[in-house]
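Incident review: delayed structure delivery

Summary: a single-chain prediction request sat in the queue longer than the usual turnaround. Root cause was a stuck worker, restarted by the on-call engineer. No data loss occurred. The affected request and its eventual output are reproduced below so the record is complete for anyone auditing the incident later.

Affected input:
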Amino acid sequence: MLRRKVTNAMEKLKTLFLKYYEQIAYLFFGGVATLLNFVLLNVFQAVGGLAFAAGAGNVLNNAICILFAYWTNRTFVFKSKNHGAEALREFGKFVGCRIFTAVVDQLLMFLGVTVLGPGVTFVAPALWANLVKLFSQVVVIVSNYVFSKILIFKKKGSKT
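Output delivered after worker restart:
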């Protein structure tokens, strides 16, 4: 009896996982990319200071994360089968959308760290930069999923 219940529960979990694979994989690899983003933010902060990490370091950070995200989205999330010119177009759309959201990230980091940051006295500046980055990443992740789903990794014959 217990064995059957466990088997049924596992089958239901498997069905849900398969049904929502794309969203689960996107969240997982988005989480890994976000972790990479935070690691780079803090490495750049330790090496070059807060101004570098929120400025030029954030641009470099975004470039690295865009390449990582393209590879994981193409390979594991949306399982793109495009080759040649189609793959190049896909990469161009991906990079274009990610540059847009990188600009949004850069703007949020500038506003949060450079403009608002000096007036924030209830947390350390390094922690504040991480909180701003967290907020920015939520905005960026949601935007990137919508762009990827609707504009970039469309399935052939799909209306979305």
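Verification: The helical segments are 2-19, 21-48, 50-54, 56-77, 84-116, 125-152.
Action items: add queue-age alerting; document worker restart procedure.
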